[in-house]
Amino acid sequence: MSDKAAAELIGTAILLFTIQVSVEQNAALAPLAIGGILVAIVFAGGPISGAHFNPAVSFAIAFRGGISVPEMITYWAAQLIGAIVGSLCGGIVTSSYATVSIGADATLTQALLAEAVFTFILCFVILCVATNPKVENNHYYGLSIGLVVVAGAISVGGISGGAFNPAVALGLTITSGMSKLFYALLVSAANLVGGIVAVGCFRVVLPSEFEAGGTVGETAPLRGYL
């Protein structure tokens, strides 16, 4: 296993462990715990793998031209394995297993739209703060990414479950005995759609990055990102 894949596996495992434990122990403060740990692991893993920890992010980066399709698939495999390991460890600690589910008063359309929109916001922010040469060497990229997840979990967590990440949806589902598998697959698809839309919007606001001879968006803070 490459160092990048190992970093993605470990980081995703840490993220899922935190999600599993925080949701089961103190759901009200879970968004802060999840966003906080995401800030930390993004700063930790950024120089190694780019700290995607999310198949939708890897998909957006590949669609943007930053990584190859084989690299993306390797990242996806590492992220899914890490998600299962982290979620399993969290479940052992709490003696219970969370899963992603639709809110009691929400429809499937509302839930999937919420997932697509906040995954779009997450991927768009990542593209702008971590792959934009105009903000190269910035020191706020990790905080920006973590704050999006906090905002999303607080805003629509009660509607969609607040995954914004196929590894989260699938990791929690697999360790809970395949509970709500169909919904997790739909959430994963919505997350990928959000990632594609983010790349399209990024192209609109920074067209020079897609012109012939332009950069591929590598930035110093996340040199391993692309």
Description:
The structure is a single chain. The protein is an all-alpha fold. It is 69% helix and 0% strand. It contains eight helices and no strands. Helix 3 (55-64) runs parallel beside helix 8 (181-205), helix 4 packs across helix 7 (166-175) and helix 7 packs antiparallel against helix 8 (181-205). It is globular and about 50 Å long. The protein starts with a helix and ends in a 21-residue tail after the last helix.
Gyration radius, rounded: 16 Å
| Helical fraction | 55-70%
Query: How many helices does DSSP assign?
Result: 8
What's the helix-strand series? HHHHHHHH
Q: Tell me, what's the shape?
A: globular
Strand content: under 5%
Q: What is the typical, i.e. mean, pLDDT? A: 91
Short structural description:
This protein is mainly α. The protein is built from 8 helices and no strands. The longest helix is centred in the middle third of the chain and has 26 residues.
SSE diagram, text form:
Blueprint: H1 3-25, H2 30-49, H3 55-64, H4 69-94, H5 108-130, H6 141-160, H7 166-175, H8 181-205
